[in-house]
Amino acid sequence: MAGLIGTVTLNLALDVTYQVGELVVGGSHRVGAIRQRAGGKGVNVARVAATLGHQVLALGFVGGITGELVAEELFDAGLTALLTPISAETRRTVAIVNESDGDATIFNEAGPTVSGDEWRAFHDRMPWGRLGVLACSGSLPPGVPTDAYAEIAVRARHHDVLTVIDTGGEALLAAAKAGAVVRSNAAELRDALGDDVSVESGARRLTELGAAAAVITDGPHGMVAASHKGTWRALPVEQVSGNPTGAGDACTAVVAAAVAEAPEPDWSLVLQSAVAASAAAVLTPVAGDIDLAAYRRWQPQVTVQAL
Amino acid sequence: MAGLIGTVTLNLALDVTYQVGELVVGGSHRVGAIRQRAGGKGVNVARVAATLGHQVLALGFVGGITGELVAEELFDAGLTALLTPISAETRRTVAIVNESDGDATIFNEAGPTVSGDEWRAFHDRMPWGRLGVLACSGSLPPGVPTDAYAEIAVRARHHDVLTVIDTGGEALLAAAKAGAVVRSNAAELRDALGDDVSVESGARRLTELGAAAAVITDGPHGMVAASHKGTWRALPVEQVSGNPTGAGDACTAVVAAAVAEAPEPDWSLVLQSAVAASAAAVLTPVAGDIDLAAYRRWQPQVTVQAL
Questions:
Q1: Shortest distance, CA A303 to any CA of chain B (angstroms)
Q2: Is A63 helix (H, G, I), strand (E, B) or coil?
Q3: Residue B115: exposed, middle, or buried by beta-carbon count in 10 A (0-12, 13-18, 19+)?
Q4: CA dist., res. A252 & res. A52, Å (int)
Q5: Which residues contact B110 (CB under 8 A, 6 or more apart)?
Q6: Crossing angle of helices A169-177 and A148-158, rounded to 10°
Q7: Which GO terms describe its cellular component (chains A, B) (predicted)?
Q8: How far is B243 from chain A (nearest CA, A)?
Q9: Mean pLDDT in runs of 10 for chain A (307 residues)?
Q10: Which of A150, B70, B88, B265 might form a disulfide with B258, Cβ 3.0–4.6 angstroms?
Q11: A-side interface with B, Cβ within 8 Å?
Q12: Given this model, what pLDDT does residue A241 score?
């Protein structure tokens, strides 16, 4: 199982969606359809990777009744999970979606506090020998060290497992220094390296800091990858409108799958798939889903330029 | 325990309150403080009656994990409950409260479907012999007959128990015909009897239909009571600003407590207490709470006129 993709979601959530006629501030609303599913950026990565045919293992913390609902939903979705129990209650997020225009208004609970013992238990049960790659994404729950992702990357290296880490700011620099494949977007890259940095030079800077590679999404301008072998830019397929939430997670899923197959993949090919998957994610209304037919249609059409 | 006040909440809920900086439609919000408690109009009635020193028994349906949380919270609040289990999951309501101005935006789930067997089980476990009065308020869950309150009132009469029923529209007329003490507000009264009816003549019409008495809240104009002995109007104490949600339930609690003591209370005295309790409920930010000191200060100050 060298290809197994572990997806780390330290701040797992039960994502609840309420459909309403139209959200009015100060109003009282009758909720129509209610949907509940496991959420957090790492879960989106796991869903997309599974949809693309890869073996995944969802990792994270679950606590209380809400944690049980998250675990149940992962099971029902066919996602194998290895979850570390915690004493505090798993968080919820609530999305209010207008029936009229599909616009969403989001409320994110901060999440349960993870104790030092629970953080150690998470590491102790990590099945390093089975993992082809470990993809980490999303916010950190209270109690977890702020350099949690860098710590995971360092531990992974000890076990010869590559990590793909989607983060921003200081955590992005720390993950690069720890030798991870780093994933971010243009805004977060500039948060970390300064407003005047270009996406291309920023991605290269991350590899100079130690990152095995850097893959930066650049919104309507496509995507950039850098490794010690070069830098590439992929152009977007076409203007796609829809729900951009989860597009970056689709990119992370493709990157993780590529690294699980080969530690030094052909980044120009990876970018082709990543751009197609991100665009195919925008077509679907729910983060974590992708339009597989659109993905397959677009994947060979993506133009990649070596810089 | 002739004075025991049974409070019926057919559509019990777990009321969840999220504090946010300011609600922006289409935005993503970090949730600050989270509060959860048992809710539904009947629970507000039970809380206020208990705060005023009366013995209460909270009745309703609970299902699933959310039902367990509701039952736990009622227990923690010191409210004795006799709950009928159902197979569907108890509903939640979510209130988003702005930190800046305290304004609330509310989302109400419709509620679980109650089966015919569950509805019969609810009646079968009703402890008629222990009840001094039965107060019914709030929305009906799916599956319960639309004339549920009238059915309860008729069953109660068979057991010589008076009911206080807070409802509107057709259900208000049916409750009156069933001989209940009916509770409503001016808008709901006009929904039932026509736009041109005054609150006083509407209240009298309800007693002519068969209601033991009718108590109608009239917003800033105070409150009206009618029985076969007369009609009274109570004037509001002073302009009170705050949270009007739950003010009507405080009125219902006072009416139920009075009827539990004496089936034909002095309605002018009841109105004094009801106006004071409603105003004291507006002072508190949470429905079901009242400012007991303000209640005691205002209660002797309320002016009641016989019409």
A1: 33
A2: strand
A3: middle
A4: 12
A5: A30, A31, B91, B141, B142
A6: 10
A7: cytosol
A8: 12
A9: 87 96 94 95 98 97 96 97 98 93 91 97 96 95 94 96 95 96 96 95 98 95 96 90 88 97 95 96 90 96 95
A10: B265
A11: 18, 20, 23-31, 34, 65, 68-69, 94, 96, 103-110
A12: 82
Write the CATH number of the domain with boundaries B5-12+40-90+111-306.
Answer: 3.40.1190.20
Residue A1 is predicted with a pLDDT of: 46
- By Cβ distance, the residue of A18, A68, A106 closest to B29 is A106
> Using an 8 Å Cβ cutoff, are A133 and A183 in contact?
no
Cα distance between residue A185 and residue A173, in whole Å: 13
- Per-residue pLDDT, B2: 56
Structure-block tokens of residue A302: 């993506």
How many cross-chain Cβ pairs, A to B, lie less than 8 Å apart? 67
* The predicted structure's pLDDT at residue B286: 85
CB B23 within 8 A of CB B107: no
pLDDT lower than 70: segments of chain B: 1-2
Q: Do the beta carbons of residue A74 and residue A81 sit within 8 Å?
A: yes
Report CA B12 to chain centroid distance, whole Å: 12
Of A34, A96, A109, the CB nearest to B31: A109
CB contacts, 8 Å: A104 with chain B: 26
User: What is the dotted CATH code of the domain comprising A5-11+41-90+111-306?
Assistant: 3.40.1190.20
Contacts of A110 in chain B (CB under 8 A): 30-31
- The DSSP result for A220-251, as a single string, is GG-EEEEETTEEEEE--SS---S--TTHHHHH
Tell me the three state secondary structure of residue B199. Answer: helix
Alpha-carbon distance B38 to nearest alpha carbon in chain A (angstroms) = 17
Residues of B in contact with A31 (CB under 8 A): 107-110
Q: Which amino acid is present at B302? A: V
pLDDT for B160-206, tens place per residue? Answer: 999 999 999 899 999 999 999 999 999 999 999 999 999 999 999 99
Tell the residue number behind the tokens 């039965």, with chain if given: B134
Nearest CB neighbour to A107, from listed B96, B108, B110:
B96
